[in-house]
Design brief:
Layout (H helix, E strand, L loop, with lengths): L1 E5 L5 H13 L3 E4 L11 H17 L4 E7 L3 H7 L7 E3 L3 H11 L3 E5 L5 H13 L6 H16 L4
Parallel strand pairs: 1-2, 1-3, 3-5, 4-5
Helix pairs in contact: 1-5, 2-3, 4-5
């Protein structure tokens, strides 16, 4: 599986750790930056680029998920969710990570680098990446409603 990852300055230490950890686990990791620490960097472009790469890969039939990191993960999740076809979920524990995949077929996970130890964050991300979508009809239906709104601007 390909994993696209992006961060801001607040998540750089975590991102560096995760890139190595995920590669050792057999994932094809693509780093969307930043490449250098800058306390005044702006996360939207990094996170949008990672999310767009996930959307592009999935459209091309490539098994891909994404990770966006920041101090809280909130802004990074918001930025990723601006990309058509992306369902980014903020995960703060194992249950929210697993449920994001099981119930929402989330394809990007957001994690706050200042909210967890490196080991806790890695465990949350590992759970997200390993969890399959349930495929339950009710979840498929709800995801379809979101996708229709995204495409048409109207609700059911």
């Amino acid at each position: 599986m390909r994993v696209h990852i992006a961060t801001d300055h607040a998540g750089m230490e975590l991102s560096s750790h995760l890139i190595g950890h995920l590669r050792e686990s057999g994932y094809d990791v693509v780093d969307h930056g930043p490449q250098e620490y800058d306390a005044n960097d702006d996360y939207p472009a990094f996170c949008i680029n990672a999310a767009q790469a996930v959307a592009d890969d999935r459209e091309a039939g490539v098994d891909a998920l994404g990770i966006v990191l920041g101090g809280s993960g909130n802004g990074e999740q918001i930025a990723a969710n601006k990309v058509r076809g992306i369902r980014a979920a903020l995960a703060w524990n194992l249950d929210t990570a697993r449920l994001a995949r099981q119930h929402n077929d989330a394809n990007v996970v957001a994690v706050g680098g200042r909210q967890h130890t490196v080991d806790e964050a890695a465990e949350i991300i590992d759970a997200f990446l390993a969890e399959p979508f349930s495929g339950d009809e009710r979840h498929v239906r709800r995801i379809g409603q979101i996708a229709r709104y995204e495409a048409t601007g109207t609700t059911a």
